[in-house]
């Protein structure tokens, strides 16, 4: 073998032995392909480089396409189950968007629109806040069959695409002051399951008085639903129901998670 060929062969062999590292962030969560295999909690789920960012605005679920480039829409169904007892869930806020859009962040104050959902069970202010905004494909209310009692299931159909592939949903637990359940900017993939704890909007103190809770447990006590204020001031995991007001702890408290969402 010629000396020059020998050195060329040795160089190739050395390069072949260099280890290659593929970088995957420890924060990335990959979707399971089996409903029972793995649980995801519904906040800040990311998937690297799989969904493009686009600040275009969706128009009632149909994105206008220009030129020869086309983005294909796909449909998904969400099967949502209330896992609690005696804590009905209100109508849902449902939004499909890109990763730049956020409804809330833990440790930060809730928007007025989120506070209205968490205190009154009304998702319309969130729709008004986000519908037609950059990065939002669709923002709607799902109220078919609402409220949803413990053990009940409702199904929501969404339309998404590779530019708008993130999902946010939220509903109030209506026998509370300002507790809600939510998936906050997750990537829905078929045959995946997400769970949500009970969350606290921090916009109203948890005095557990029926004058400030709109649910059916309070209809025969006090149905005025006035805003009590004096909240903690930031979104956090709800501390639970402690029986300090008009309703008994042993009937209206819960254990997390409170909501299950199956995607198919």
Tell me briefly what this model is:
The chain contains four helices and eleven strands, in the order H-E-E-E-H-H-E-E-E-E-E-E-E-H-E.
User: Please, what is the average pLDDT?
Assistant: 83
Q: What characteristic shape results from the CA principal axes?
A: globular
Strand order of the largest sheet: 4-3-6-7-9-10
Pairing-aware structural class of the strands and helices? Answer: alpha+beta
Question: H/E element string?
Answer: HEEEHHEEEEEEEHE
Characterize the biggest β-sheet.
6 strands, antiparallel
Distance between the termini: 62 Å
Number of helices: 4
Tell me the helix content: 10-25%
Counted beta strands: 11
């Amino acid at each position: 073998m010629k000396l020059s060929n020998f050195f060329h062969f040795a160089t190739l062999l050395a390069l072949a032995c260099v280890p290659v590292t593929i970088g995957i962030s420890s924060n990335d969560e990959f979707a399971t392909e089996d409903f029972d295999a793995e649980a995801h909690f519904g906040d800040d789920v990311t998937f690297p480089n799989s969904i493009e960012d686009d600040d275009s605005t969706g128009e009632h679920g149909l994105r206008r396409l220009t030129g020869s480039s086309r983005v294909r829409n796909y449909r998904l169904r969400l099967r949502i189950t209330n896992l609690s007892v005696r804590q009905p869930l209100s109508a849902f806020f449902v939004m499909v968007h890109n990763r730049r859009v956020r409804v809330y962040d833990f440790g930060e104050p809730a928007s007025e629109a989120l506070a209205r959902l968490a205190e009154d069970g009304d998702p319309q202010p969130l729709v008004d806040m986000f519908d037609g905004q950059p990065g939002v494909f669709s923002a709607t209310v799902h109220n078919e069959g609402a409220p949803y009692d413990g053990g009940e299931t409702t199904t929501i159909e969404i339309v998404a695409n590779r530019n708008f592939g993130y999902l946010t949903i939220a509903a109030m637990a209506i026998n509370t002051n300002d507790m809600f359940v939510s998936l906050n900017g997750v990537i829905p993939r078929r045959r995946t399951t997400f769970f949500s704890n009970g969350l606290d909007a921090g916009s109203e103190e948890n005095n557990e008085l029926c004058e400030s809770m709109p649910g059916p447990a309070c209809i025969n006590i006090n149905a005025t639903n006035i805003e009590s204020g004096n909240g903690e001031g930031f979104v956090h995991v709800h501390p639970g129901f402690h029986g300090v007001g008009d309703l008994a702890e042993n009937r209206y408290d819960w254990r997390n998670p409170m909501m299950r969402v199956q995607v198919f």
